[in-house]
Prior knowledge:
Elements: H1 2-5, H2 14-36, H3 54-64, H4 66-69, H5 96-105, H6 130-146, H7 153-194
Helix pairs in contact: 2-7, 3-6, 5-6
Amino acid sequence: MIWRAMRLPVGIKLSAVVALAVPALVALTAITTLADSSPTPSPSGSAAALPGDPAKGATLYGQNCATCHGANLEGGIGAVLNPIDKMPGVANPFDPTYLIDIITNGRVHQPGDPRSTDMPAKGGNTSLTDQDVKDIAAYIIQQNQTGSPPLSPGELAKRTILWVSIGIIAMVFVTYLLAQYNMRWIARRAAARRK
């Protein structure tokens, strides 16, 4: 047996080494995964640079935009607004002027655009005032500054790999302990038969 061939210093059992090594490996993997995760870039600008009132914008967004862009800006028919979809040819999607222009004038599907649907001017509600549009833009910017966006595909994959690895290591450890117990039980039965 491989386990029998391994010689450890007197007083140290292989099960004790495994019992210490497995949690250490899990802890190191978790620390490495957390250290490798890169922070989500925040939009440029500060709360003082908001073009309108985000509290009013939240209400207006819920009434006029949530149908297409989702109640939590997660997207749907329309583009994802937290984290905001990168549009071709747009340097800063958090520029208030850019957002106000898109909300006011709408957007026609462009080749290479991540969304295949058009956005009507003012989301189809022509009664929105210029201040209403500024408030909606302020709400979108604020949510990207303070909201917690969903995990990126890379981060989701890292976390999945971490937890699957932990599960596999735990199953191997439990299997090892059960095998050791069974071997002792078999040895005791064999000794009892010889008597």
